[in-house]
Amino acid sequence: LQDLSNILIEGSSADGKVKVTYNGQQKPVGVQIDPGYFQSLKNDKDGAEALSGDLQKAILEAHEKASLKMEEKMK
């Protein structure tokens, strides 16, 4: 399992402007949001809702990838 903690897996959304990183043990280790993403939300009255949705998509993608990687390593 120690090997898995050193593996980084990324999930993204909003054309890569919102990224979430998990390690191979399915633990979140980072979030990156491109500054340009906020510019695109500036005129969006539902900006907070859009950010929340995009973060959720990135988190789910990273978690799914991390789960697959963990299963692969355990075999």
- How much helix, percentage-wise, in residues? 40-55%
- Low-confidence segments, given as residue ranges, are none
Number of strands: 3
Estimate the mean pLDDT confidence.
89
Strand content: 15-25%
> What structural class should be given to the helix and strand makeup?
alpha+beta
- What does the radius of gyration come to? 14 Å
Strand order of the largest sheet: 1-2-3
Tell the overall outline.
elongated
Number of continuous helical runs:
3
Kindly, what is the distance between the CA atoms of the first and last residues, rounded to a whole number of angstroms?
Answer: 12 Å
Query: Major sheet: size, sense and barrel closure?
Result: 3 strands, antiparallel
Oligomeric nature of the chains: single chain
Give the ordered list of helices and strands.
HEEEHH
Write the layout of secondary structure elements.
Blueprint: H1 2-5, E1 8-13, E2 18-23, E3 28-33, H2 35-41, H3 47-74
Antiparallel strand pairs: 1-2, 2-3
Descriptive report:
The protein has 75 residues and is α+β, with helices and mostly antiparallel strands. 52% of the residues lie in helices and 24% in strands. A 3-stranded antiparallel β-sheet has the order 1-2-3. Strand 1 (8-13) and strand 2 (18-23) form a beta hairpin. The longest helix has 28 residues, at 47-74. It is elongated and about 50 Å long. It starts with a helix and ends with a helix.
